[in-house]
Amino acid sequence: MLRCQKMRVNHSINGGTVILVDEIIISDLVIETRFCCDLSDCRGACCQEGERGSPLKEGETEAIKLLLPTIIPKLPRENQSLLAERRFFLKDGSREELLCLPNGRCVFGQVKEVGGPVKCTIEELHGPQQKFQKPLFCHMFPLRLDNFYGRVCLNMEIREECKGAVGEGPLVVEFCKAALVRNFGKRTYHRLVEAIKAERIRRSLD
Question: Phi-psi category of 42—alpha, beta or left, where left has phi over 0 and alpha has psi -120 to 50?
Answer without folding.
Answer: alpha
